[in-house]
Amino acid sequence: MEASKDSARITAYLRSNGIETLFNPSLQEHLTLCTFLQGEKICVQGEPLDSLYVLVQGKVKVYTTSPEGKTLILSFKNPLELIGDIEYVRGTETVNTVEAVSEVIMIGIHHRWLKKYGNDDPAFLNFLLKIITNKFYIKSNTLWFNLLYPVEVRLASYLLSVSFDASDGLLTGRHSTASLKDAANLIGTSYRHLNRVIQQLCADGLVERYNGGILVTDREGLKKLANDNIYE
């Protein structure tokens, strides 16, 4: 992570996301601009987290890991989103792992400043409440999706989320065999079953196989199969 105290850029990101009044003047003095590279983890399940982050540019994926080491994708997040809100309110270790899908820019603030200047701020607390209640709604839907949607829908949604950013710009159309093994875990299926689904997507012209992985060739077709995108 690269951290900066560039107040002009921080103000610009606050304005562009419509949250210039979210942090009162006392809190704004302690904001930090944080840049995470693609693949870098913002926080890791079970580890301490001492800051709250506001996602203002880029895309992240949120996933959980079982005691046996199996992972399950929960959602992909685009701006505007909070990272570490539940941990801040509950005073607990990180609930889920959050990883940058693209280069990500966040505005961070340490918990000690939030407790000192934010705990009695109605605007900040109201925003926090809205974000947290929305997360519980999404989590409920995610569990429903993984139970009811077939693997081809989950895979199509996953490919859309990791291949394109919030503005539909291409992040990467190529996905290696190793990343597909991770994808099988993340969407809750076996790698063998995933391969059978990939064969069908190839037959339908949605993806192509290449030496070492697959290439997304029909974004609109994937969107139709995925009902736009169940993970976003």
TrEMBL record:
Q: Which Pfam families match?
A: cNMP_binding, HTH_Crp_2
Name the source's superkingdom. Answer: Bacteria
UniProt keyword ATP-binding, yes or no: no
- InterPro entries for the chain: cNMP-bd_dom (IPR000595), cNMP-bd_dom_sf (IPR018490), Env_Response_Regulators (IPR050397), HTH_CRP (IPR012318), RmlC-like_jellyroll (IPR014710), WH-like_DNA-bd_sf (IPR036388), WH_DNA-bd_sf (IPR036390)
Q: Cyclic nucleotide-binding domain: from which residue to which, for each copy? A: 36-116
Q: List the residue ranges forming a coiled coil, or say none.
A: none
Gene3D superfamilies for this protein? Jelly Rolls, Winged helix-like DNA-binding domain superfamily/Winged helix DNA-binding domain
Tell me the ranges covered by the HTH crp-type domain, including all copies.
Answer: 149-220
Q: Which UniProt keywords apply?
A: Activator, DNA-binding, Transcription, Transcription regulation
* Record flagged with keyword Transcription regulation: yes
PROSITE patterns annotated for this entry? CNMP_BINDING_3 (PS50042), HTH_CRP_2 (PS51063)
The identity of this protein, by name, is Cyclic nucleotide-binding domain-containing protein
